[in-house]
Amino acid sequence: MRATVMYKAHDVRVESVPDAAIKAPTDAVIRITRGCICGSDPWPYNDGPKENGQRMGHEAIGIVAEVGSDVHKIRRGQLVVMPFAYSDGSCMFCEEGLNTSCVHGGFFGNGGEPGGAQEEALRIPQADGTLYPLQVGEDDALTPSLLTLSDVMGTGHHAAVTARVAPGHRVAVVGDGAVGLCGVIAAKRLGAEQIIMMGRHPGRTALATEFGATDIVSERGKDAIERARELTQGFGVHSVLECVGSAQAMDTALGIVRPGGAIGRVGVPHYGPIDLSTAPFYHNVIVAGDPAPVRAYIAELLPDVMEGRIEPGRVFDRTISLDEIPACYRLMNEREALKVMVRP
Amino acid sequence: MRATVMYKAHDVRVESVPDAAIKAPTDAVIRITRGCICGSDPWPYNDGPKENGQRMGHEAIGIVAEVGSDVHKIRRGQLVVMPFAYSDGSCMFCEEGLNTSCVHGGFFGNGGEPGGAQEEALRIPQADGTLYPLQVGEDDALTPSLLTLSDVMGTGHHAAVTARVAPGHRVAVVGDGAVGLCGVIAAKRLGAEQIIMMGRHPGRTALATEFGATDIVSERGKDAIERARELTQGFGVHSVLECVGSAQAMDTALGIVRPGGAIGRVGVPHYGPIDLSTAPFYHNVIVAGDPAPVRAYIAELLPDVMEGRIEPGRVFDRTISLDEIPACYRLMNEREALKVMVRP
Questions:
Q1: What CATH number labels A2-151+293-343?
Q2: Which Pfam families match (chains A, B) (predicted)?
Q3: SS (H, E, C) B161-209
């Protein structure tokens, strides 16, 4: 089968690899019908992969092609969405909804086994706990939105949840990538009154406005902090959704959070220690977040997708074949592509 | 009147100062019947005060001696407890229970105006919002426990609340000072199942056990982390109450917190940026805390004190006069005194 492999920074190839196959009785294999390039893929694309030959991709919808002997809930032929992390669904962390900390869990496309989802098929460990069956056809119009439940919509929701968005809150979303845009959807869904999108890419901020952003702050650094404070009577926001992962994004988050407010950080952190003294001094700011337990959120978000109340699939701005993936890594890296859907 | 004044590191004196007096119509003046030396006082005692001549102390019970023309709830002659921060009780932060971020608020004994509570009398800004009347006599047997509502019991409770202690939780308390011991009381009160006291002072850890600690870890550094993990099946604790404020205490907290767990940090922070990468990697650890809005907690904690369900006053191990304060700063600094009550 064909798969996406990263050898070193800026060296991504689509090539032939051995077919995905069951290894453990709790595994399934899915034939991927839709994959994605993620806003986090440019990090290894620039910094280099974890190994020379890392299989890439961690978001997919697919059809179950095979199940192991100890898989009881997932059945061959089902259309399923795959969270970016696998989990057994039964350990104490999974039971608490923290599937990303599953004692038998791990991440797809993160180096080593299992492989990635930018390929034709994928082995899914802990299939019963990991996969979530969908009740639509393979080419349903809702497919793009359903595909975001694999990562970006769940991650935006996690940013909002960990930033404690609540009805009436003032919220800022740092970052106009796909996760930030889904963060806007999540904040609005949870009842935020004011949603400030901190981003400067016109097409994306326009989409943010359609998703519910009430204000756009296109400045950066200190100017961005000042502008966001002006928009909040000088006090800052209750909730900051940090959806970038850079040091500057975290500094902005700490600079605009209100006393007693919370920062939900879901950007893959590329910063050092967090200097809480840059937050409102002594003002009980909460720092939370990390990888989203998206598996736990699917049941909550799916009805809103199915009934069209949220349309996170609008973040996709292009659909490509496997062969176009290397070129699209470059487009993602240059911020020319917002979110890429792959049809293997 | 006589007051405690710190001139430089290790130079604390009790001397005559002008009498406390009303300055604003929202002020009151209290005659202090009980004050304290705080576990945080050794910080300026070693590092030097904020100003050459800083008035010290921020915990007290007293009798209202005088009220300004715009004070309507507090009356002359009432016995009151004074939180370590003053607050108007009506701004948006106070209404949310975050009195320490009051837009008209500030801290006692923190340099400049108002003065401190290690003296005979004190001007109380925002008297209506700040002071909390008590329904006991000046020398009631409950006085020590009531006095802890001024700071240490409320602060231990805040550590527990911000660390999200809940029924059945495994909890660790870092620090066996008065706040840590009150943290044990708070954790037990909120239903913790396991309470690990991380401390090495035998008298204090014994008191922790009486308050509800189930395990004592007297090791430090990496050994302490290892021991606490052994006590929690290797996973760490749901909630860490960081009641010291040193870099080592914060490192310990990050080392023993469980995936999805929370750190409530209430020790006055004497550390730099927090390296969240030392916490369980990618495991959604929450960092919260800061100065406790103790004023907001009095109504909740007072009934338990009045009815004897909690006895935080047991943290006091000596009662002294004003003149003995300088000597007792030395004892506190050498950890020979746990918590000192002052009868001016």
A1: 3.90.180.10
A2: ADH_N, ADH_zinc_N
A3: HHCCCCCCCEEEEECCCHHHHHHHHHHHHCCCCEEEEECCCHHHHHHHH
Show the tokens assigned to B22: 């009303």
Nearest CB among B93, B283, B284 relative to A260 is that of B93
> Are residues B33 and B343 in contact, defined by beta-carbon separation less than 8 angstroms?
yes
| Closest-CA distance of chain A to residue B204, Å | 28
Q: Is the pLDDT of residue A58 over 90?
A: yes
Nearest to A286 among B101, B277, B288 (CB): B288
Interface test with B, best of A284, A285, A294, A297 (most B CBs within 10 A): A284
Condensed to tens digits (0 to 9), the pLDDT of residues B68-79 reads: 999 999 999 999
The ipTM, to two decimals, is: 0.92
| Cα gap A175→B269, rounded to integer Å | 30
Binding-face residues of B in 319-338 toward A, CB within 8 A: none
* φ/ψ of residue A250, rounded to 5: -70, -40
Q: For the segment B59-70, what is each residue's pLDDT rounded down to a tens digit?
A: 999 999 999 999
The CATH superfamily assigned to A156-289 is NAD(P)-binding Rossmann-like Domain (3.40.50.720)
Q: Does A286 touch chain B (CB under 8 A)?
A: yes
